[in-house]
Here is the input.
Amino acid sequence: MVIFDCNGVLVDSEPIAAEVASEEFTRAGFPLTADVVARFFTGRRPADMFAEIEAAYRKKLPPNLTTIVMATTMQRLRAELRATRHMEYALTWLRGPKCVASSSPIERVRASLETTDLLRFFEPNVFSASDVPRGKPAPDLFLYVAGRMGMLPAQCLVVEDSPAGIAAATAAGMTSIGFVGGTHAGPNLESLLVHAGARAVIADMRALKATVAALRGW
Here is the structure.
C-alpha cells in the first residue's frame, strides 16, 4: 500500500497555507513570516502549531483565530489550489491500494482533493491526524491508517514532503519516499528528508512508479 501526505505532495498548498497563517498571526499580534511558518510547521497539525506559538509567545491566541485561519485558508485553496505537477499521471499508473494521511483537518483534505479532482483516486480512504492522539512526527496517524486499511507497517510505503512526515513514517516502521518537487521546497529539503529516514527522494512525480517498484523489489 502507498500512503500519501496531502499538502505539498498531492496538492501544491503549502505556500498558500503558510501565507495565510503568517498574515493572520501577524494581524493578531503574533508577527511571523511565511518562511518561519513553513520552516517550523510544514507537515504538522494546525492544533500543534497554535499550541507551540502560544508557548513561544507566552500568551494566548485570540479564541477565534483558529476559525479565521481555517476559513481563510479554505477560501484561498478553493480559488487557487492546483494539483502537484504530474500527480494525476502518477496516480493513474500506480497500481495497488493507496490512501491519504494528512495532518490537516479532514474538511480541508477533502476540499483540497475535490478542488484538484484527485479525490476519485482515494475515496473513501482519506484520513486525518485529527483522529489520533498525536500528530506527526509521532507515528500515530500512519499506524492508525495501516490498521484501518488492514495492512502491516512493513507493507506500507509513505510519500512525504516534510521531515516531520518522514520521521513519523520511520517511527511507524514504514518505508518512506521524500518528495522535493513542490514550489515550497528549499535547497536543503532533500538532505533533511534523508536525515529523517527517507529511503529515496524524488523531485518529479513521473518517477514515483519506478521508485515504488524499486523499493518493493519488483
